[in-house]
Design a protein that fits this description.
The protein is of the alpha/beta class. The protein contains eleven helices and eleven strands. The strands form three sheets. A seven-stranded parallel sheet has the order 3-2-1-4-5-6-9, with helices on both faces. β4, α3 and β5 form a beta-alpha-beta unit. α2 crosses α3. The chain is globular.
């Protein structure tokens, strides 16, 4: 019996690429979608769809014809992201896709503190409205973001207060997503899974863990909202983007990202990675913080 075709978006990215590789290893037929097919990975048994941007309904329809399941990784942040998502969803339904597994965000809500989490809620609402079979994977902050957002000066800055965040590894998200995608039954239909790490930690505790790993003092510097905007002004990013950066920290301060779920071990059969385990496995993630020899 031939397994139904799974279309994977964002296949050149951190989540989509890992999921595509896992599915390909099982022999499931996979179609890789991306705006630039030349950047898509070459995987055994996987085919590349013609170029398809989320906001191009006709291109998405062509790319998804014959697919049974769509793994929908959220688009890059933009003022039009919800429209891009809903266009892609509508194209998928019109093309005959029977199931959508969507990568959302922890605490997605219309009034979420993190502005980009509101986009995810509106996308979820649209998917529900179509009536298509669906599963939502609401991942927390990425563990990789902790060292990445720590400056080479050894300071992690942000208006996170003393709130806690249950950050999760890309590998665990991919394992959980693959488990859902490979289950052809209906047990996951209509289900929302919070994908988190095994613990929720403060940013000060994260800095302490980075200090232990690097052998250098790393500290967390809590900011006010005004200080956060000022410290990020040199990037020259548009206001909506900076608001997303700042409110992601404010969501931590508000307690909206402290949820710890058992979904990763439930779906994958293995424990979720802690920050300490992630850093041990990924020394390149904090190389910029190591003392100069």
């Amino acid at each position: 019996m031939i397994s139904p075709l799974v279309a994977v978006t964002g296949a050149s990215g951190a989540v989509g690429g890992r999921v595509a590789a896992r599915l390909a290893r099982t022999g499931v037929p996979v179609r890789l979608l991306g705006r630039d097919p030349s950047r898509l990975p070459r995987l055994p048994g996987a085919t590349a769809a013609p170029p398809a941007a989320y906001g191009d309904g006709q291109a998405m329809h062509r790319a998804l014809e014959g697919a049974h399941t769509l793994f929908l990784v959220s688009a890059h942040e933009s003022p039009d992201r919800v429209l891009e998502h809903t266009t892609a969803v509508d194209a998928a339904v019109a093309a005959g896709v029977e199931r959508i597994v969507y990568v959302s965000f922890l605490g997605a809500a219309p009034d979420a503190t993190f502005t980009f989490a509101r986009d995810h809620w509106h996308t979820e609402a649209h998917i529900r409205m179509t009536g298509v079979r669906h599963t939502f994977l609401r991942d927390s902050w990425y563990l990789a973001a902790i060292p990445a957002m720590t400056g080479s000066d050894g300071v992690l800055r942000g208006p996170g207060g003393e709130g806690r965040v249950s950050a999760v590894a890309h590998e665990d998200i991919a394992d959980a997503a693959s488990a859902v995608l490979l289950d052809e039954g209906t047990d996951h239909d209509g289900t929302t899974y919070d994908l988190t790490g095994p613990e929720a930690f403060t940013l000060a505790e994260a800095a302490d863990e980075l200090s232990r790993r690097t052998g250098r003092t790393i500290r967390y510097a809590p900011e006010t909202r005004e200080e956060a905007y000022a410290s990020r002004a040199h990037y020259g990013a548009p206001e909506w983007e900076v608001a997303g950066w700042v409110t992601s920290y404010e969501a931590i301060a508000a307690g909206e990202l402290e949820t710890v779920s058992d979904a990763v071990p439930l779906l994958t059969g293995h424990p979720a990675r802690s920050l300490a385990a992630f850093l041990q496995e990924n020394p390149e993630s904090y190389r910029h913080l190591l003392p100069e020899s």
